[in-house]
Amino acid sequence: MLLRKLRKALRLKKLVHYAVIAIVVWISCRLYIAYQAGQQQGGRYKAYGPRDIGRGREGPDYDESWDIDNKFNHKDKHESGKSRLKEKDRDDEVHRENKDKKSRSDHEEQRGGGDQDEKIGGGDNKIPDSDHKKDNVMQFGEEGAGEGRSEDKLSKKDGSKEEFQVENKIDWLLEEELQKRRKLFLDDVAKRAEEYDPNDFKDMQEADDHLAFITAATEKTSWTALLQFIYSVQYFYPSSDIGVYDLGLSDEKRRQLTTYCRVSVNPSFTKLWPDHLTDLTKPMWRPMIWQMGLAHYGHIIFVEPERYLHKKNMKDYIEHSRRYGITVVGRKLQYSPFVVTHPEMYYFLNVDTRKLQRVNMFDVSMIIMHNSQPVRHDFMRHLVSCTLEEYCITPPGSRQQCDNRLYPGSKKYANCHRYDLSAVNILLDKWFGFKQEDFLVKDIATAHYDGKDVSNRIKVCKNREEI
């Protein structure tokens, strides 16, 4: 009985062994057939590495400078494309000459042996319209007459402006304008540069109440939401200053705000801003408020309009901000900043877009900043310069509405733009080496306006001495 079971087990083991060998042989044959097919088609189907999976090597996101195979084979492909074009041109020329000779002989037969020196293009001896049209296409190449040769579809990419104009439809006037503006932008950034030792600005220490809470308000901002923000700061941090930056408040509201304890209404000087920043419907104004807040208070906690403090959890956030001078309190979104950033912004804010595609977009509910040299040099000087440059913060054609649904894990550009939030994401990700844990923390301290009316709870100070 035992021997029978043992024999049965050995037979089963052999069957499994043979099955594994058969599978390996079958896979090897399939790979060999695929390899031979690729060789016959000029190496069109090369084995892709892990970096090519899901990337779309020939899609809109394909960058040949990143493709190692293309880097070494592009010249050979380019030369082979040229040779194919030359062979095709020769064949067409021979065909056209044969057709011309036939047309000439037929004409001479009809005339009974006419003048041999007569020009082919004269009289009735015109080249047929179809051939004449083909000659035009052959003569003008990429400038073609709407029915270009199939060879014209080959991408030469030799730097010719005419080819790029036809193939990619680049607006060269816009390119020249971008170059001028980029030069001015880089000059402005260079003027704001500062030299510092990073080790001198680690673990900064200042009292918690030295950080002022600031926000901004327009006439369209919910008045009760603004009052709820003021009340929450007075309740949790009664000794902290509160700064409200005026982006268009009425005189009556400004006077009322100044009666509240430790509240000051600060001018935003919007009349001095560039014209593109005066459109407050587009979120581009926050960097200006941050810059003025740092200059006025030194250490700021900016809270988004229509949000308020609902817990006293600021101590950990402030400790976190002292390491590098900045802490963003917000949430990670399910898509990349690359998806919602206009490509022209990269022309001013240079960044590795492939690394940008691998990180999450984040929003800003609250941001804590210290007016230190690292913050000014590595973050604010670039952000403010970009905000002041129209083509950086709001590139031509940029809009908030996206074409595609922003689904989780999306990495393809959705033809939309997030203005100052896109710039903040790019600059902070680049500054911190795309390690978002060094500057980004989850928001558990603020909440969106809940509709409560707290106007009768706010502390009112009748004169400055009480404040």
UniProtKB/TrEMBL annotation:
The chain crosses the membrane at residues 15-35. The keyword Nucleotide-binding does not apply. The keyword Membrane applies. Residues 68-136, 146-160 have a biased composition (Basic and acidic residues). Keywords: Membrane, Transmembrane, Transmembrane helix. It comes from the Eukaryota. Residues 43-136, 141-160 are annotated as: Disordered. PANTHER family: LD39211P. This is Uncharacterized protein. It comes from Littorina saxatilis.
